[in-house]
Design a protein that fits this description.
By secondary structure, the protein is an alpha+beta fold. The chain is built from nine helices and 42 strands. A hairpin with a 4-residue loop joins strand 41 and strand 42.
């Protein structure tokens, strides 16, 4: 089993609203060790060009490029820090080094092929961390570069670029980078003119693998830690009195064989989604579960969902939505052991004219990342799942409610839900009998659980494990997925807490099979989080509180509501979502949600029907605005009209 991964489950129409979050494409797969000018699929760049800068151009600096065989090419930067090197006949990937004209500055970078390859303090930090994860140094690898030297592959570079982009996102937005979500520190062109990304470089102070940035009102500190095969990033940021914290990690291949295997796996995952898109297009409305057999392993099991159910879910969903592949990456985990090759990666697909991500951090409420694929006997990869019989939602959020009096104080909430086909009623659950009990155990120094007594907000000071049994009364709710969800009214569910566990806090979640056998234990991790307040600016052009003053359902039925808002400033936004709930006091009604992408500051107009909850005297309209961060941060703004 691939222990550090637990992708989110999905089912039918519920699929898109839960797991598909808009994100610009990045990363990708390929294969290294090929001639720079070879290959098909269109013209291959024969030059490596870029900018060498430190917040100002590195003019008249010496740039050296080395290929996979250690062959060198040289260039000198111009007054703007620009350089260009002909790579015809060289073997990719490439390692680059720039030395300033006075010899006081040395920086490294890398490129997986021809095209843009910038050199600046952030590429240097990434390459330094890469070689520390391999147990060596960038300077040592560059000096001794040969055919046996491990150079960063396309997958490795995609992993590094995505990880750093995630923490640099707020700063990129602050300095006005328009494509902040898709920015790549290695390959996105920029100008060393003191603006945009160059200004962010200028504002950064880097010492070893840590850096400090002050950009306007935003202050950020990031620590990068390189271990064997893993690079981890921990960030704290503050902006005008609000703060956020995040942590993430990426997988790095540690041998040429693993690198080759990982590159091949990424290419195979790309082929899976490309072939699936072809099947969806050719089958159209006749797409069936049988058509998904080529893409789902027979032993697929993910959070209790079997291969049979998953294939049907895929067919039902893509029959309505269509699909095309944009990219694959980053890779979060790669394991090749016990005759099983598993890879956990993100796929960026296009659905309905927009990019959505499958397997990003926000697809996993327990802090895990990536969808799991397994290598088949023919060398292809298929979707495999996390091999868990159930799952746990575990996340924190900061929420603010808007009323006629304005915004309320921000409330920190914590969600713990156990989702499993339990052994007890209701009897209409097809998965009945799978799980009899769930235990959430504290692990690590900061692993706090909510105290189950006392008033709200609940303190996080319970040291004992939390055992959830279906034998307890009143603990079962049925979701629209058909799951049974155990939600104890205090210890489980969505509840306010006095403080929240630090980002990265881990918990062991154990599911006990109803029919006996070994327990299924996973390790859940708390997401990154922010103390910001979600900023709902206007409703129909008026200040939110002004608009809501004196408003009742009768005032808005049959009308339209248009919202505007400000994006978060302490973390990079992956997606903005508007949720609309129209219901009566008994809870009858429908909820809808709209995904708007990472940079939206206004949304599609919300139409309120002229008649609400027919047959009920009292109705309520609930509007929710949610911001999802690239590292799992969550901010919510809500208002209700009764």
């Amino acid at each position: 089993m691939l222990h550090p991964i637990l992708p989110r489950r999905f089912s039918g129409a519920y699929f898109l609203s839960i797991i598909c979050l808009a994100l610009a494409a990045c990363g990708g797969g390929g294969s290294g060790g090929a001639p720079a000018g070879g290959g098909g699929g269109g013209a291959t760049p024969t030059m490596v060009s870029g900018i060498a800068a430190i917040g100002t151009p590195l003019a008249s600096a010496a740039v050296t490029l080395k290929d996979q065989n250690g062959v060198s090419k040289l260039a000198t930067t111009d007054a703007n820090g620009a350089f260009s090197i002909d790579i015809t006949g060289l073997m990719r990937p490439f390692l680059l080094k720039v030395v300033s004209s006075g010899g006081t500055t040395t920086l490294f970078s890398a490129a997986s092929s021809g095209g843009t390859a910038n050199i600046h303090p952030f590429t240097d930090l990434a390459v330094q961390a890469y070689y520390q994860a391999l147990g060596t140094t960038a300077s040592g690898a560059f000096a001794g570069a040969s055919s046996s030297t491990l150079l960063p592959s396309q997958t490795d570079l995609g992993n590094l670029a995505t990880a750093l982009n995630n923490v640099l996102g707020p700063g990129l937005q602050k300095v006005g980078v328009s494509n902040a979500g898709a920015f790549n520190i290695f390959s996105t062109p920029f100008t060393a003119n003191g603006n945009g990304f160059d200004l962010l470089v200028h504002n950064a102070s880097i010492t070893g693998l840590t850096f400090h940035i002050v950009t306007g009102t935003l202050t950020q500190d990031v620590t990068v830690t390189a271990g064997s095969g893993t690079i981890s990033l921990a960030s704290t940021a503050s902006d005008s009195g609000t703060s956020s914290s995040s942590s993430s990690n990426v997988a790095i291949a540690t041998t040429q064989q693993q690198q080759s295997d990982q590159e091949a796996a990424v290419a195979s995952v790309q082929a899976l989604w490309t072939n699936l898109a072809t099947a969806v297009s050719s089958k159209g409305s006749s797409l069936s579960a049988a058509d998904m057999t080529a893409f789902v392993d027979a032993s697929y099991l993910d959070r209790g969902t079997t291969a049979t159910a998953f294939r049907q879910n895929l067919a039902d969903f893509f029959r309505q939505s269509g699909v095309s592949l944009q990219s694959v990456g980053p890779v979060y985990n790669f394991t090749d052991a016990n005759n099983q090759t598993l890879i956990s990666a993100r796929a960026i697909l296009q659905l309905g004219g927009r990019n959505v991500t499958f397997g990003g951090i926000n697809d996993s409420d327990d802090g895990r990342t990536g969808w799991v694929y397994i290598k088949e006997s023919d060398g292809s990869f298929k979707l495999f799942g996390d091999q868990s019989i159930a799952y746990m939602n575990l996340f924190v959020a900061s929420s603010v409610n808007y009323t006629s009096a304005g915004a309320s104080a921000t409330t920190n909430t914590m969600d713990i839900h156990a989702h499993a086909p339990f052994a007890m009623p209701p009897s209409n659950n097809l998965g009945i009998g799978t799980v009899s009990d769930v235990t959430v155990a504290n692990t690590g120094a900061n692993s706090l659980l909510p105290a189950c007594g006392g008033g709200q907000p609940f303190p996080l000071n319970q040291s004992a494990s939390m055992t959830l049994s279906e034998q307890q009364s009143g603990g079962v709710a049925v979701t629209d997925n058909g799951d049974e969800v155990f939600q104890d009214s205090v210890c489980l569910g969505h509840f306010p807490v006095a403080n929240t566990p630090p980002a990265g806090t881990t918990y062991d979640v154990t599911f006990t099979p109803a029919g006996g056998g070994a327990a299924n234990t996973i390790t859940a991790q708390m997401h990154s989080q922010s103390s910001e307040t979600a900023n709902l600016a206007t409703i129909n052009g008026q200040d939110a509180a002004t608009f809501l003053t004196g408003k009742h359902v009768a005032n808005v039925t049959g009308t339209q509501l248009a919202l505007t808002w400000a994006l978060p400033t302490t973390f990079a936004t992956e997606n903005v979502q508007i949720s609309t709930g129209v219901s009566d006091v008994t809870g009858n009604g429908e909820d809808t949600s709209t995904e708007l992408g990472p940079i939206a500051t206004s949304g599609s107009t919300i139409t309120i029907p002229a008649t609400l909850s027919s047959g009920h005297a009292t109705t309520q309209i609930h509007i929710g605005l949610s911001f999802f961060g690239v590292n799992g941060e969550r901010l919510e703004a809500r208002f209700s009209i009764q």
